[in-house]
Amino acid sequence: MLEVRDIVKTFDGRAVVNRVSFEVRPGEIFALLGPNGAGKTTLIRMITDILKPDSGEILLDGTRIGGDSRRQIAYLPEERGLYRRVSPIEVLVYYGELKGLSAHAARAAGLALLERMELAEWATKQVQTLSKGMQQKVQFCTALIGEPRLLILDEPFTGLDPLNTQLFEELLAERRAAGCTVLLSTHQMNKVEELCDRALMINRGHMVLYGSVRDFRRQYADHAVTVRCDRRPDAVAGVHGIAAGDGDWKLMLEPAASPQSVLRELVASGLGIESFSIANLPLEDVFVKVVREGLGLDHGQSGPLLPDEIVKGAAR
Amino acid sequence: MNFSWRRALIVARREFLTTVKRKAFLFTLIAVPLYFGGVMTLATRGSMSDRRDSLRSFTRLGVVDSSGLLTGAAPEITTRLAPDPTGAPEKLETYRTEVVFYADQAKLERALRSAEIAQGLTVSADYLATGATRRYARSTGTFNSASSVRPIERWLARSLLAGHADSLRIERATRPASGMDLYTLGKDDRFEVKDERREMLEFMVPFMVSILLGVCIMTGGQYLLQGVSEEKESRILESLLCALSPEDLLAGKLVGLGGVGLALVAVWLGVGFAVSAPMLALAQFPLSPGLLALAVVYFLLGYLFFASIMTGIGAVTNNMREAQQFSMMFSFANLLPIIVLTQILSKPDGALAVTLSMLPFTAATAMMLRLGTPSSAVPAWQIALSLALLALSGWLVLRGAARVFRIGLLMTGKTPNLPEIWRWARAGR
Question: What is the pLDDT of residue A305?
Fold first, then answer.
C-alpha cells in the first residue's frame, strides 16, 4: 500500500529525517511512534506531499506520491482547526469538492458522516458554536470524506471523552473493514497496543524500531515468564528468581532455559496452573527504554533493526 | 500535487462567497462611499456655509474716514453669492451691510465692543497715497475672516469713483475681469475656452476612480492577508494542504478575493454614476470607455502585485496583528499618489508624476490621476511601459510569493527575517 524508501530530509544542514524506510500493508493500522521532535511530522508531510524529500522515494500502490494519487490520502494533523464562521456541512462540502466529489455527492457524504458522528442536528450551525469535542469530530469527518484509501491520523484521541474515543475506534474499525489503511501517530501507547499490528519508531530522525508491536514488547522484556498458579512456584529448574505480581508470579529464567522447558518443570512439580505466558514489557516501557538509552541511534549496535538492513530487505 | 484550476476555482468560489456574506464586507460596501461622500460634502458645504454665515452676520460696518475721500460713499454694501459652486447665476443670494460713519476711532471701538456694528474700518489721512486702512472685528473664525474683505474693497472703489465716473464705469472698475474667459490649448492643439465646471467633472471621474482603485486594491489585499492569517493561526492549512497544493490555494485566493475587489468597484462605480448621471448629462460629459477599461486593467495588475505581497506577508507572519504591521507600509505606498495629489495635478507630466506612474507600488493610482488631469497628455508609450512594468513585477512577486507561501504556511514560531524570506522566495520546498 505505502512504501517509504530510504528518505532523507534536511533543514539547514540538519537531517530531520535520516534514511527512513518502512512499508504499510493494505488494511492495517500502523503506528508511527517517536518522542517529540523525532521527525514524525516532517515524515508525514512528505507522505502527504506537502514537503519533498531530499532523497529517497515514497510510493502509494507502487506509484510515486504526487499528482492526483495524493487524493487517496487524508490527513488529520495534531494541530488542527476549522473555519469558525461557517457550518460543519459547508466545511465538509468544501473538503469533499477539493477531494474530487461533486457538490451534491459531497453534501450527501458530509451529512452521512455527521449522522454517523451524532452531529446531524448541528450540521447547519456555525462551527464556533460547537463544543471542542464536537469540533474534533467535524475535523475527523474532514479526513474521512471522499473515502481515502490511506488515512493518516496524528493524535486523533487527544481530548476525547471515553464515549467519543470508542466512537472513533469503531469508525476506524469500519474503515479498516472497508479496506482503508491507517497510519496512526500517537503517544497513547495503550491505543497502539490495542489497535495496531505493526509500528515504526523514529528518534532524532533515525528509525529505531520497526516491526510487530507484540515482538517489540517481547524483545525488550526480561527473559521471563508469568504464571498464575495455586502456590508459590519455588525451586523450579531454569529459574533464578521469583517476583510476586498482581495474583501471579514472574519467573526470571536462566540464560540457557527456555519458556517451554520451564513450563514442563512447572507441570511436573504438580502445581495447579491457571495461566502461563511469556512476560511482555508494556509498549510505554519499550518507548521509554529505547528513547532514554538512545537505542538504535548507533547504526544498529543497540537497536533490533537497522535502516540498512531494512533497505536491503526491501531491495530483496 | 500539480496545480489544478478546478481546485483553485473551488477555493475562489468559497473565498468570494464567504467574504461577501460577511458583515464586514457589507459595512465596507456601504460605509466607505458614505464616508468619502460625507467628508466631501462636509468640506464643500461647510466652507460655503461658513462664508454665508459670515456675510449674514456682517450687517453693519462702522467707518472712520480721516482721508475725507469717502464723503459721497454709498450707505450700503450689497453682496451677491451663488448658493453652491455649480448653481445657476440667476439664483444668487443677496446680503446687505449698512455703513455707519463715526467721528473718531474711540467711538468706533465702543460701537464694536457693544456689538452695534459687526466690523470697523479706519481709513488713514494719506490713504490715497499709501492705501493704509485698518479693519476691526471682535473675532473671526480661523479661515473665514476674508469673506467680508472683497465687499469692503468694492465699496471703497465705488466710493472713490463716485462723482468722477458714470455708474457703468464704476461697476466695471469694481469687477474689471468678471467676464474674462480663459482659452487654453486643447489636446487637439486648438485653443478652446476653459469650462471649469466641465473640467471639474473631467477631473473628478478619474480622480474618484483612482481613489476607488487604491481603496479596492488595499481592501482586496487586506482580505487576502486576513484570510491567510486566519487559516494559518487556526491551523486549518495542514489538513487543507493534503487536499490541494499551495499553488491551488494561492491562485484560488487571488481570484476569489480579486473578484471581491472587482465587485466592490463595480457596485461603487455603478451607484456613483447612477447618482451623478443627471449632473454628467447636464455637462454633456461623455464617459470614456477606454479610460474605464484602462482602470480595470490597472486594477487587475495592481491587485495582482499587492495581493501577492500580502499573501507572502500572511504566510510568513504568525497572526493578524503581526501581518498588519508588515502590510501597513505597502498599503501606504499604494495611496502615496493621493497624498502628493497637488504636485501631480500641477505637473501631471513632471518627473514625480511620471516616476510614480511607472513604479509598481504607485502605478495604478498615479496613472489614473495623470490621465484624469485635463492639462495632461500622457503619451501612449508611457501607459504601455507602466502596464508592462506593473505586469512584470506582479508576475515576479507572484512567483516569489508562491514559494514563500508554500514554505511559510506551515512555519510557526519566530517570524523569519528578510534574508530568510529572500532565500525562501528563491528556493523550492
Answer: 47
User: Which of A146-160, A294-308, B126-140, B149-163 is predicted least confidently?
Assistant: A294-308
Q: What is the mean pLDDT of residues B147-175?
A: 86
**Inter-helix orientation angle B149-161/B167-174, to 10°:** 150
Query: What is the CB neighbour count within 10 angstroms for residue B193?
Result: 9
Question: What are the φ/ψ torsions at residue A54 (nearest 5 degrees)?
Answer: -70, -35
pLDDT, position B427: 62
Distance CA A125, CA A103 (A): 19
CA A151, distance to chain mean position in Å, is 12
Structural domains in chain B, CATH included, are 5-41+195-427 (no CATH), 55-180 (3.40.190)
Are A18 and A8 a contacting pair, CB within 8 Å?
Answer: yes
Judge contact between A209 and A304, C-beta under 8 A. yes
Q: How far apart are CA B202 and CA B348, in angstroms?
A: 15
- Residues of chain A neighbouring B1 (CB-CB closer than 8 A): 49, 66-68, 70
Query: Which among B401, B391, B400 is positioned nearest to B299, based on CA atoms?
Result: B391
Q: Which helix (H) or strand (E) segment is B229 a member of?
A: helix B196-233
Distance of residue B34 Cα from the nearest chain A Cα, in angstroms: 27
Cell numbers for A3, please give them: 512504501
Which among B233, B235, B241 has CB closest to A80?
Answer: B235
* Separation between Cα atoms, residue B16 and residue B20, nearest integer Å: 6
- The letter for the amino acid at B307 is A
Contact criterion met (CB < 8 Å) for B234 and A83: yes
Cα distance between residue B141 and residue B282, in whole Å: 36
Residue A282, all three cell numbers: 508494556
Nearest by CB to B234, which of A48, A84, A99?
A84
Q: Which residues of A295-308 are buried (b: 16+ CB within 10 A; e: fewer)?
A: bbbeeeeebbbbbe
CA B80, B84, B86, B88: dihedral to nearest 10 degrees? Answer: -40
Let me know: does B316 contact B400? Beta carbons within 8 Å: no
CA distance A291 to chain B (A): 26
3-state DSSP call for residue A152? strand
Give the 3-state secondary structure of residue B290: helix
A141-150, B22-31, B188-197, B331-340: least confident range:
B188-197
CB A168 within 8 A of CB A156: yes
Q: Which residues, given as ranges, of chain A have pLDDT below 70?
A: 67-68, 294-316
Residue A105 contacts B, CB cutoff 8 Å: no
- Report chain B residues whose CB lies below 8 A from the CB of A143: 239
Q: Which amino acid is at B312?
A: G
